[in-house]
Amino acid sequence: MTRIHVTYTGGTIGMVESAAGLVPGADLSGWLYRLLEDESDLRPGDVTLTELDPLIDSSNATPESWQAIIDDLWSHHHSADAFVVLHGTDTMAFTAAALSYALTDFGKPVILTGSQHPLGNIVSDATANVTGAINAALSGKARGVTLFFGHHLFVGNRVTKRSSWAFEGFEAPSTGPVAQSGTPWHWAHIDMGGRGWDTPRPYGRHDVPVITFVPGVRAQRLVCMVDPRPEAVVLRTYGVGNIPSDEPGMSSLIADLTDCGIPVVVTSQCPQAEVMVGRYGAGAAMDRKGVCGSDDMTFEATYTKLMFLLSQGLETPDVCRWMTSSIAGELTEGGR
Ligand code: ASP
Predict the structure, then answer these.
(1) Which of 128, 120, 111, 136 is nearest to 28 (CA)?
(2) Which residues line ligand 1 (CB under 6 A)?
(3) Computed from CA positions of residues 328, 67, 95, 182, in that sequence, does the dihedral angle turn out positive or negative?
(4) CA 90 to ligand 1: nearest atom
(5) Model confidence over 171-214: pLDDT tens digits?
(6) Ligand 1: distance of its center to the CA of 89 in Å?
(7) What whole-number percentage of the chain has pLDDT above 70?
(8) 328 and 192 in contact (C-beta within 8 Å)?
(9) Which of 8, 90, 160 to mutate to test the pocket of ligand 1 (most atoms within 8 A of CB)?
(10) For residues 163 and 289, what is the distance between their CA atoms, to the nearest angstrom?
(11) DSSP code of 238?
């Protein structure tokens, strides 16, 4: 029998109404054990549960929260065969990507899930998502870090939250799902690959502003965003990596950052993208040393990867080299 460890971090799934809106407070462990008793062959002893303290709305998640989950998973590594993480949906895609980089040597499946509605509500998606995640854990087919939501299993570092209300709340714009639940489940072949990372250092916070370009933004506004000097910068550019290059001061802003040795990572505002820095004249200012594109990574995978690499203490050339190499299948190396 497969033994499952559940790490409960918070999120809508275990929330109750309060005067201040939805907050953690439901009897999640009671609900979960009843569900498993009624709906599966698992016996109480086959499932262990950690409730992280404090339970949080995932909007409050930080790199330290990712590390707390990683630490809990490792501390139960020997006593379980598969792992389920119950998490709020708002930043679940960030956490899934963050876990994927830090757990390349974990060797056992980790499946994240949550719900759009609290458990116990007749219209809730909690039961479907948790039983789906448990089924994925029991399947023997899930690998690495994945996320189950709305009848689909996704590679954890390829996923993004697409809807604040739909039960199909997540999508993987570049790869599609790994599996669709049903009778039977349908599995696709997605090569998660990646070079892995031996004994990663723990996640810490790093100062990385994210700059989103919008029509009419002035360079001076962006200059203020990088003062004082951050550790790295993420640019959310248009299309394959274009910025308003005619705007005075915009190109020199990029040059100033790279001249100071600050890594600049170019992402796209398109959910489904393949960044090609310098493909257009409007992106030429970024075709320089110290700037790297995010290829077909999601924004969540890109940002958390930077946090991971900075937590490893890497210098700019190594940060740029790893940003364009796959650690845990988060990007398609060599293009699509
Ligand atoms: N704000 C909640 C959270 O991310 C939303 C959810 O779980 O659906 O914790």
Answers:
(1) 120
(2) 10-12, 57-59, 88-90, 114, 116
(3) positive
(4) 4
(5) 999 999 999 999 999 999 877 789 999 999 999 999 999 999 99
(6) 5
(7) 99
(8) yes
(9) 90
(10) 37
(11) B
Amino acid at 114: G
Task: Specify whether the CB–CB gap between 306 and 208 falls below 8 A.
Answer: yes
Q: What region, left, alpha or beta, does residue 28 occupy, with left being phi > 0 and alpha being psi -120 to 50 degrees?
A: alpha
Identify whether the C-beta of residue 303 lies closer than 8 Å to the C-beta of residue 208: yes
Output the CA torsion 126→130→131→136 (10° steps): 150
In DSSP terms, 48 is beta-bridged to: 5
State the SS3 of 35-66.
Answer: HHHHHCCCCHHHEEEEEEEEEECHHHCCHHHH
* CB environment 244-262: b (16+ within 10 A), e (fewer): beebeebbebbeebbeeeb
Is the pLDDT assigned to residue 335 strictly greater than 70?
no
Is 49 exposed, middle or buried (CB count within 10 Å of its CB: 0-12, 13-18, 19+)? middle
Give the three-state DSSP class for 282. Answer: helix
Strand pairing category for 264-268 and 291-293: parallel
